[in-house]
Design goal:
single chain, alpha+beta, Glutamine Phosphoribosylpyrophosphate, subunit 1, domain 1, five-stranded antiparallel sheet
Length: 295
């Protein structure tokens, strides 16, 4: 499994991915999920992947080789939207080649990608590309995408990030999101690949790999836990008596009451006697009928 997050902001883009793969508790591997594509000072793209590693590597290789897909590739696409179409077509090519064999082996075609960057003359753009090769684009209202184990890191992103968030603050938020995921899911692991792309630079502005010895990530891991506990302890406990209006929780539930149990099940001995009496009562009519027939 993996966790990747990409943010499309007013000032640029932020990409963060882990490097852990696993096919069971005894088959843990480290593979990079982030790939960079750059052409002079004319275009720059980043691809992050989650899903079946063999599938995502095959897609990445098609893109790196520059194969023409519907007469275009990442180096010739006129805009970022067309480049996202190229990535989707690469997924479809791998599907056409492998899906029958995968189905026979009982394996799902699982491939999810975050793809983004900038072509000169355009604004930075970000896409979430699915297994079918179709995609959606980030907007100012929905400015980030996650793939892989997304649920643990989502709350901090929802509370903090918006389209106007500065790149440094967004970077900190992405790292906290990753730390929360690392803390809750062992299928996501270090080292991390972090890329901060500044608008119109057409090159990686800040690119770093973070492991357990990185001082900034160590600080985030320790301080975030401490701040969460401090914030938790600073919130008032519920006031059942209603003495403190701000924390009163004593209002009665109007529609929910305990359901009374009126019927008590019979004791085992009494139950046996009742069953025996019932079965003997059923036999009586049969005896009367047989007596009439004899007469």
């Amino acid at each position: 499994m993996t966790y990747c997050v990409g943010l499309c902001l007013k000032d640029g883009l932020v990409f963060l991915s882990d490097t852990r793969t696993n096919a069971g508790v005894d088959q843990i591997g480290t593979f990079r999920k982030m790939t960079l594509f750059q052409k002079d000072k004319e275009r720059f793209f980043t691809l992050m992947s989650a899903g079946n590693l063999a599938i995502t590597q095959a897609v990445k290789e098609i893109l790196l080789q520059g194969q023409l897909l519907n007469e275009q590739n990442l180096w010739t696409a006129e805009n970022a939207h067309d480049a996202a179409i190229v990535v989707g077509d690469a997924i479809k090519q791998v599907y056409d080649r492998d899906h029958v064999a995968l189905e026979k082996a009982g394996i799902d075609f699982n491939c999810n990608l975050i793809f983004g960057g900038q072509i000169k003359g355009e604004r930075p753009r970000l896409f979430n590309i699915y297994s079918a090769g179709n995609f959606i684009e980030a907007t100012p209202e929905t400015c980030y995408f996650q793939i892989g184990e997304s649920k643990y890191g989502k709350p901090i992103l929802d509370r903090v990030v918006n389209y106007s968030t500065p790149l440094n603050l967004a970077t900190k938020c992405a790292l906290i999101s990753m730390d929360s995921t690392l803390n809750s899911n062992i299928s996501v692991g270090l080292p991390l690949d972090l890329l901060v792309y500044e608008k119109n630079s057409l090159q990686p502005s800040k690119l770093v790999t973070l492991d357990e010895s990185n001082p900034y990530f160590q600080m985030i891991h320790q301080l975030w836990g401490e701040k969460l506990r401090s914030a938790f302890n600073s919130i008032a406990e519920p006031s059942w008596s209603g003495a403190h209006k701000s924390s009163a929780i004593s209002a009665p539930a109007k529609r929910m009451v305990p359901v009374p149990i009126h019927h008590q099940p019979p004791k085992p001995r009494a139950l046996k006697k009742a069953v025996a009496k019932k079965s003997s009562d059923k036999k009586l009519p049969a005896k009367k009928v047989s007596a009439k027939k004899k007469a």
